Amino acid sequence: MSWWETADAGDDDFDEFDEDSIRTRPNPKGSRPRTKQRPEHKDARTARVLSVDRGRYLVLLAEGTADERELTATRASELRRKSVVTGDQVDLVGNVSGEQGTLARIVRIRERSTLLRRSADDTDQVERVIVANADQIVVVVAAANPEPRARLVDRYLVAALDAGIRPILCITKTDLADPTAFLENFAGLDLDVVTSGSGTIPVADIVERLIGHSTVFVGHSGVGKSTLVNAIVPEAGRAIGHVNEVTGRGRHTSSSTESYRVRTEAGSGWVIDTPGVRSFGLGHVDPANILKAYTDLAEIAEDCPRGCTHLPDAPDCAITEAVETGELGEGGPARLDSFHRLLQSVVSAPKLGE
Ligand SMILES: Nc1nc2c(ncn2[C@@H]2O[C@H](COP(=O)(O)OP(=O)(O)OP(=O)(O)O)[C@@H](O)[C@H]2O)c(=O)[nH]1
Ligand SMILES: [Zn+2]
Questions:
Q1: In this structure, which ligand is nearest to the CA of 143?
Q2: Where are the domains of the chain?
Q3: Known binder of ligand: residue 227?
Q4: C-alpha 347 – ligand 2 centre gap (Å)
């Protein structure tokens, strides 16, 4: 069993903390005047959540200062079912010394810039939040062994575009196969592509893209994601995000994603590795968000009939017509084809309640 699968098996442990479960019902009382019920915690300190392990959070306080320190925290009950996820910025009270055996308390989650989610799929009926505040996602796929599948990459891309996260495609194992034909699937998507092979991992190229960003790495088991992350963050094996001092649990024991800092002279960035993301249910995705990610197509779509799905069978779709008349240039058909595939993966995803 790979650590990927081990991680997935432990996923259940965070059900009870998952605010975004599709089972959550709207609050019938509407928005509650919460400040009446709890203190404001004016003295709270803001920290970054590095990893989550069964109700314990490893957080980084005073990031980038001489006072920077890791601490373990719990969630205050006033957060109710709101889940705290890796990448969150949270407000802490209580003991923030970081000394062994101490626990701080998370009382607030700061507004998130992005939220990478996956929803119900065949094997998992609960929607989960994966990572907060990431602005890039590296989708790792092997040129061979395991054989690459465009549909799978489409699903990752859709989840990223829906969340407003910039996707980067990383093709590994190019020593085993030439990825050119596979890459044609994505020719129309303006996708940033990096290729990597045994002995030729383009570490500098990748690191350059990571500086100043918070980047999630996703990919199926065996594609070489660990190999890649270890090459990029050589200290990953002993880095932050692993050991939980309070529970004493060891490394790689849970479903937690892990955060690693990449440092260069040009600055630093965060790599968030996600062993738990084996599949992406796309039930939560709004096809309109996919269109929005392609501004040229979105502009053309303003001339579509009302309610146009922009799918291949949509009558009088302005996007399809623009491609047919050559308005989108030589690359138009490839662009339309990729775009149709992305939309199709949203439309065919099981929707909530089905
Ligand atoms: N030929 C070749 N093999 C590679 C390359 N990168 C990784 N591998 C091999 O592929 C296998 C899987 O690599 P990992 O890095 O463990 O892959 P992973 O995606 O992290 O997989 P899990 O750990 O199962 O989640 C290992 O045997 C690696 O040595 C590559 O660029 N070329
Ligand atoms: Zn249309």
A1: 1
A2: 3-109, 115-273, 287-347
A3: yes
A4: 14
Q: Which two tokens stand for residue 110?
A: 């700061």
CATH topology of domain 3-109: OB fold (Dihydrolipoamide Acetyltransferase, E2P) (2.40.50)
Domains 3-109 and 287-347 share a fold: no
CA of 141 to the centre of ligand 1 (A): 10
* Domain 287-347 falls under CATH 2.160.20: no
* ipTM of the modeled complex: 0.97
Q: Which residues pair with 124 in a beta bridge?
A: 121
CATH for 115-273, among 3.40.50.720, 3.40.50.300, 1.10.260.40, 3.40.50.1110?
3.40.50.300
Q: Kindly give, in sequence order, each residue whose CB lies less than 8 Å from that of residue 33, ignoring residues fewer than 6 positions away.
A: none
Q: Please give all residues whose beta carbon lies within 6 A of any atom in ligand 1, as ranges.
A: 2-4, 172-173, 175-176, 196-198, 219, 221-227
- Chunked into runs of 10 residues, the chain (354 residues) has average pLDDT values of 32 38 46 54 92 91 93 90 92 93 94 86 65 96 93 88 94 96 88 92 95 94 88 66 40 63 93 76 84 89 95 96 92 90 83 54
User: Which ligand has the minimum distance to the alpha carbon of residue 311?
Assistant: 2
List C-alpha distances in Å: 320 to 117, 311, 336, 341: 30, 9, 7, 13
Query: 206, 192 in Cβ contact below 8 A?
Result: no
Which of 226, 228, 274 has most ligand 1 atoms within 8 Å of CB, for mutation? 226
pTM: 0.82
